[in-house]
Amino acid sequence: ARDGAAPRTRGSRAVSRADAGRYICRATNKHGSAVRSIVVTVEYEPSIGEMGCPAQRLWVEGTPVELACAASGNPPPRVACAKLGESQDPLPVSSNVTRAHAGTYQCRATNTHGSALRNVTVAVEYSPAAVSLRVLPSANVSRGASFSVECRAEGLPTPTYGWALPPAPNLRFAADNRSVAVAGAAAANRGLYTCTATNRHGRRAGSVMVRVDESRLVLLASLGSLGAVTAVGLAAAGGYYLKSTACKKGEYNVRDAEGSSEAACLHQQRHDRGEIYGIQLTQP
C-alpha cells in the first residue's frame, strides 16, 4: 500500500509520475507478518512551462544579465539559453545588459531521458540616447520665412519631449511634441532651441542654434534709401531742366513779345534759390 492507502495486489501497468512515493509492503501468514518500507522514484524527461520560464522578458540596460528558466524532470535537467542566430554558448552571468541583448533566445533543458526547448523573447529598455535636432530647411533663416525644428531620440519606453526655446507668439508644437514650427520668423525667434527626451530610465537633451538673417532686409532698406535719394536727385534734375527750359522759353517769349504792343515790361527779381524772371503782358 502507498502511504496508508488501500492495499494493492501484485500487478503490472504503465508507470506515471504519480507513482512516486513511499510504499509499505506487508507479508502475512498464520504465524505472523513482516513489514518493509520502500521508496519509489519515477524518472522522466524534462519539460519547460510558462510559470518557470515566461516567453516574454524585460531587461534594463546596465543591469546584470539574468535569463533563468526553471524546468521539471528527473533527474533534474540542466538548462542552458542562447540567442538564436548566434553561438549556442550560454550567456555569461557576469556581463551587463546592453541593447544588443534584445532578441529571441532558445532555452534547452536536458537530462538522461531527453530534452525540451522553449523560446524566450527579450526586450531591453534604456534611457534616452542619441538626441539629435534638425532645422528645416536651414538653421540660418531669412526674416519672414517659415522653419521647423525636429527632435529625435532613441529610447525604450518611447521618450516624451520637452522644449526650452526663445519665447515668441508664432510657435506651433506637433501633437507628439517632437517638433516645433515657426511661421514668419522674426528677431524673437533667434536663439538656442533645446529639446529634452525623457522616459522612466532617465533623460537627455540636445540643442541647436537658430539664426534669423536680416541681411536681405537691410539690403532692401539700402536699396530703398538709394532709390529715394535717386528719386530726389532725378526730381531736382528734372526741376533744373524744367527751370532751364522755362527760362529759355521765357526768354524766347520775351524776344518774341519785345517791340510788340503786348509787351509792357520784363521784371527780374532776386530770390534765395536764384533769379526769377516774370513777364507782364498787356491786353490788346
UniProtKB/TrEMBL annotation:
One GO MF annotation is: integrin binding
Q: Which InterPro entries does its entry note?
A: ICAM_VCAM, Ig-like_dom, Ig-like_dom_sf, Ig-like_fold, Ig_sub, Ig_sub2
Residues forming the Ig-like domain are 46-123, 128-211
Q: Which GO terms describe its cellular component?
A: plasma membrane
GO process terms (BP): cell adhesion
Q: Which Pfam families match?
A: Ig_2 (PF13895), Ig_3 (PF13927)
Which positions, given as ranges, span the membrane? 217-242
Q: Which residues form a coiled coil?
A: none
Sorted keywords for this record are: Membrane, Transmembrane, Transmembrane helix
Q: Does Membrane appear among the keywords?
A: yes
Q: Does the keyword Transmembrane apply?
A: yes
Descriptive protein name: ICAM5 protein
Q: Which organism is it from?
A: Scopus umbretta (Hammerkop)
Gene that encodes the chain = Icam5
